[in-house]
Amino acid sequence: MDAPLQEPRTLQEAIVYFSDADRCFAYAVKLRWPDGHVVCPRCSTAKHSFIKTRRIWFCYTCKKQFTVKVKTIMEDSPISLDKWMIAFWMLANCKNGISSYELASTIKVTQTTAWFVLQRIREVMKGKGFGKSTKIGGEGNELESDETFIGGIAKNMHKGRRLKADGLGPYKNKTIVQGILDRNLRKVRATVVPNVARETLQDEILRNVKFGSTIYTDSAVAYDSGLQRRFVHDVVNKTEAYVRGKVHTNGMENFWSLLKRSLKGTYVAVEPFHLSRYVNEQVFRYNHRKEGDRKLTNAERLAVLMSQVAGHRLTYSDLTGKSDSPHHAETGTGETVEPF
Questions:
Q1: Cα 295 from Cα 298, distance rounded (Å)
Q2: Structural contact between residues 79 and 327, judged by C-beta atoms closer than 8 angstroms
Q3: CATH no., domain 142-270
Q4: Domain coordinates of the chain in residue numbers?
């Protein structure tokens, strides 16, 4: 018999690795409780017994059973752990993302179920994003702030949507995403914003960047005043040049190209209501390419993602506004379109 894989390095290896139920379970337990100290996710005590035949624990404190899925994004899902682990692996490591059709074919569920699984994983991927307590930057640190516009072309829109968008300016059919890159950390934060007004863009910078940081932006009117009071602010006028020494936003432009490649090439059409989750997905992969100067392996990137699964919850009704769960038919490939 071949020696067991130490870690799944490729998708093919991941499928083989997680097809072994015992190995898949042990791997998930190790990632959820990396110190080996299993605690009840409900009452946080370690007084429990393990029922090996059912892969569940019984907590003596709260008198309830729990599995590795409890109090995670996977809770109450009838989808088996091996399918979840393959989905986690694919979304963490496929650089242009993974469509619900491809995931459905890989793990043998309906397309609608695969879409719901992917959206739940994207919920985990948001991690510490915009508005979180930890700010980036600091005195001597260089950052870039920029925004991009995501959306369809007016002539390709349904007439009703096109009429609704009339009169909203040159970006009337677009959704706006603002991003901030910390050059020292080589990490990005990005979020959907309602507009490009001065107060909107500058408020996000104030909420996410430490005072005293050096911030480079383009010459948009939204950045033309206010930032200098709390930051070292310099501007590149892109009508004249894209780079002026260290003053540029090329790092953010690189991130935007990666984001748009996945949106146009893999997902094709994403409604504004769901766009923030796809932004979270790209931010996660971008921020976990390297640790310092060392490239992360696929297994390490998966471990980072799995370390964040606890404490997240996303129901189908919260996601879609519909009460019907997609899990009533979780076999086959499905023929539905992306349920936006």
A1: 9
A2: yes
A3: 3.30.420
A4: 142-270
Q: What's the token pair of residue 222?
A: 């939204």
Q: Are strands 187-193 and 174-182 parallel, antiparallel or unpaired?
A: antiparallel
10-residue averages of pLDDT along the chain (340 residues): 62 93 93 93 96 96 97 94 97 95 97 96 80 80 96 51 46 88 95 94 94 92 82 86 87 96 90 93 96 92 92 86 56 33
Report pTM. Answer: 0.85
Q: State percent of the chain over pLDDT 70.
A: 85
Q: Which residue has the tokens 């959907």?
A: 192
Q: Where are the alpha helices (DSSP H) in the chain?
A: 11-19, 21-32, 81-93, 100-107, 111-125, 159-165, 198-208, 250-262, 272-287, 298-306, 316-320
Cα-based distances in Å from 12 to 102, 106, 234: 14, 11, 48
Please tell me the distance from the alpha carbon of residue 185 to that of residue 84, in angstroms, as a whole number.
31
Evaluate the CA torsion angle 89, 92, 97, 100 in order and state its sign: positive
Task: Catalogue the long-range contacts made by 184-190 (C-beta closer than 8 Å, 24 or more residues apart).
Answer: 184/141, 184/142, 185/136, 186/290, 187/136, 187/286, 187/287, 188/252, 188/255, 188/283, 188/286, 188/287, 189/129, 189/130, 189/136, 189/283, 190/129, 190/130, 190/255, 190/259, 190/279, 190/282, 190/283
